[in-house]
Amino acid sequence: MAIKILSVDDELDLEILLTQYFRRKIKKGEYEFSFAHNGLEALQMLLAKPDFDVILSDINMPEMDGLTLLTKINEMRNPALKCIMVSAYGDMENIRSAMNQGAFDFTTKPINLEDLERTIEKAAEQIAFIKQAQQEHTQLESIQNDLHVAQEIQQTILPKTFPPFPDLKSFDLYAYMSAAKYVGGDFYDFFRIGEDRLGFVIADVSGKGVPAAIFMAISRTVIRAIALTENSAALCMQRSNSILCQESVNDMFVTVFYGILNIRTGIVTYCNAGHNPPILMKKDGSVSKVPTTNDMILGAMSDTTYHEKELKLAPGDNLFLYTDGVTEAMNKKHELYSERRLLDNCRELAGKKPKEVVDKITETVGDFVVDAVQSDDITLLSIAYKG
Q: Response regulatory domain: from which residue to which, for each copy (predicted)?
């Protein structure tokens, strides 16, 4: 791509001199010259054609001198536009003033064209570097805009209306997800299954960022679609696993806890596919980990058999689900928030409403890590059974 040079000088002989000396580069398309005869004319040309790369300007000119032109060029705030100033030999005051105003370089009359050629080449190198940086910055802004859109899309995937079923008084539910990056691989979900049952899910896709977010969306869609027609938690996981094994790329997988709450009886039928065991918070203040079904993560091995277990929630009990971004949250001392801290904090929250439980655990994790960078997605879901 040609370096576009605007020569600004009231001496017409310079136009002939430059076009003759640089004729080979002009012919090859390496240099493209335009000419103005004073600063005002040059400024008009710059406004009409703002893609010049190099301004070669005399300092002493009628109508608008080179220093005034340089000031106007600086106001354009184009770091890829380089000014080379020309002045009479020994005119150090004006040359120094030009350099202080941000001129790239200078040359003196009579112009040494070989020296000028080297100066233009040096300017061209810096211009190319700046344009590359500007292009990369534009690309980065475009990527960031895309990520913001992806973030908004992902947030719309997760249900956020609480209470989700205000007509149902036998339970209360609240959930929250915070991605470590713009988008994440964690998700939660819940949905009615017939009149008497509530399906609820918490999951954590391997990896982070965009790949995890895409697999998260696939996983959520597959699990929800099957759950709405499959009465068994174990068979739901089994069928979901078969499909996700076909969809998995780069050995991605997802850990899932899927439960079905009978809202009339408080009985929860569940399957734990490699996920952190939820915490059962009893009304009396005791807490315990929900026994696992010891099942395989989804998306790793097809033709895997899954199992299910039951637990019964009494009125006032709370089932708290979370991803390992909670227990593995790390402070600046490289200490983990840990399962022990989580159990201790849950013990103090027994009998509280789900929103209070989720908000308080989120707060305690934040207080623990303080200013440390969030390294993993954090997702929490709390269900209180009222009976």
A: 4-124
Q: How many helices (H) and strands (E) does the chain have?
A: 11, 15
Please report which confidence band the pLDDT of residue 339 belongs to, taking 50, 70 and 90 as the band edges: very high
- Each residue's pLDDT tens digit, 296-324: 999 999 989 999 999 999 999 999 999 99
Position 279 scores a pLDDT of: 98
- The phi and psi torsions of 172 (rounded to 5 degrees) equal -130, 150
**Host H or E run for residue 215:** helix 209-227
Q: Give dist(CA 84, CA 18) in Å, integer.
A: 14
197-223 burial: b if 16+ Cβ within 10 Å, else e: bbbbbbbbbbbbbbbbbbbbbbbbebb
- The helix/strand/coil state of 330 is strand
Mean pLDDT of 234-254: 90
User: Is residue 377 within 8 Å of residue 308, measured between CB atoms?
Assistant: no
| Exposure letters 335-353 (e unless 16+ CB within 10 A, then b) | eebebebbeebbeebbebe
Please name which of 230, 286, 295, 299 lies closest in space to residue 257, comparing C-alpha atoms: 295
Nearest-angstrom CA–CA distance, 135 and 156: 32
What digits encode the pLDDT tens for the residues 14-59? 888 999 999 999 999 999 999 999 999 999 999 888 889 999 999 9
